[in-house]
Amino acid sequence: MAAGLTAYRSGLAAEDAVWRHYARRGYALAARRWRSKAGEIDLITRKDGMVIFTEVKHARDFATAAARLGPRQLGRIVRSAEAYLADEPRALDTVARIDVALVDGSGRIEIIENATAA
Fold first, then answer.
1. Tens of pLDDT along 5-16?
2. Tens digits of per-residue pLDDT, 43-70?
3. Residues near 85 by Cβ (< 8 Å), separated by ≥ 6?
């Protein structure tokens, strides 16, 4: 149980660090841990008319963090983003992207913008 609590707190700390990273770059926070029937999105921010959905992954190194995001989870994030956008004034015509934020054991952050682009 202690290990689970530690992992939970580490995840929250990683999300806080990523949010601060975006805030320093002029992004506005729209939601944290937003939930839909499809799943949860860690951070939703806005900048220059765009909605940015961010999945945060934390591990001892960037490669391990990246490996924790599989195709199934990415699909869940896409479905959740679509659910969020359905309530936007322009709905699915809203300019949006999905980022993946990797946080390593020393707190360094690497953002993969538009992670679902082919």
1. 767 788 889 999
2. 999 999 999 999 999 999 999 999 999 9
3. 51, 91, 92, 94, 96
- The burial of 12, by beta-carbon neighbours within 10 Å (0-12 exposed, 13-18 middle, 19 or more buried), is given as middle
DSSP-derived letter for residue 1 is -
Instruction: Report the candidate in 100, 11, 88 with the shortest Cα–Cα distance to residue 51.
Output: 88
Selection from 118, 97, 99 nearest residue 110 by Cα = 99
Contacts 24+ apart (CB under 8 A), 88-93: 88/51
What gap in Å lies between CA 42 and CA 53, rounded to an integer?
8
For the chain, percent of residues with pLDDT exceeding 70: 96
Give the containing element (helix H, strand E) for 67: helix 62-67
Nearest residue to 12 via CA among 47, 35, 42:
42
Which amino acid is located at 113 in the chain? E
